[in-house]
Amino acid sequence: MVDDPLSVLVGRQLSSVEFVMDYVQIRFGGPCLTAITHPEVVSGERRYRWGECAYRNMLCGCIEHDVRSAYIRSNQEAVIEFDGDVSISISLRPEDSRSRSGEMLIFDNGPEDTWIW
Q1: How far, in Å, CA of 28 to CA of 25, rounded?
Q2: Could you tell me the pTM of the whole model?
Q3: What does the alpha-carbon distance between residue 93 and residue 74 come to, in Å, rounded to a whole number?
Q4: Are the C-beta atoms of 107 and 33 separated by less than 8 Å?
Q5: Which helix or strand (DSSP H or E) is residue 71 part of?
Q6: pLDDT per residue over 32-78, tens digit each?
Q7: What tens digit of pLDDT does each residue of 66-91 get?
Q8: What is the Cα–Cα distance from 106 to 39, expressed in whole angstroms?
Q9: Cys bridge to 91: 21, 28, 96, 104, which one at CB 3.0-4.6 A?
């Protein structure tokens, strides 16, 4: 996973979560993930999904936590793991796409480093 573009997030803190209409922007200082497919928050055995009561609190609860690992798993999902054994998972499976263009996730790490899945 050395060539994984998300690996630059390791050691960074989640700085903000922005809910924009029907997608979410997850910021790490400069780098930003735009999740068109709704992220899930995983804590222990529990998965928190968009629309559930505790979802926003769990997602925003990751703010100020350090990223332990960040990677794309088999082109099926993006995973951001934080200290405290909490992670964010974003599906990259075509059947989960909510966008007309088929985009599910955009990773912006500056003008010369943008990835789209």
Answers
A1: 10
A2: 0.90
A3: 10
A4: yes
A5: strand 67-73
A6: 999 999 999 999 999 999 999 999 999 999 999 999 999 999 989 99
A7: 999 999 999 899 999 999 899 999 99
A8: 13
A9: 96
- Collapsed DSSP state (helix, strand, coil) of residue 41: strand
User: Cα angle vertex 31, ends 26, 38, to 5°?
Assistant: 25
8 A C-beta contact, residue 65 and residue 83:
yes
Q: Specify the amino acid at residue 111.
A: P
Q: What is d(CA 3, CA 101) in angstroms, rounded to the nearest whole number? A: 26
61: amino acid identity, one letter:
G
Distant-in-sequence, close-in-space partners of 83: CB < 8 Å, separation ≥ 6: 65, 66, 68
Residue 58 CA to residue 22 CA, distance in Å, equals 18
Closest by Cα among 67, 52, 15 to 25: 15
Residues in the chain: 117
Instruction: Give how far Cα 17 sits from Cα of 1, 12, 75, 95, 112, Å.
Output: 25, 14, 24, 25, 23
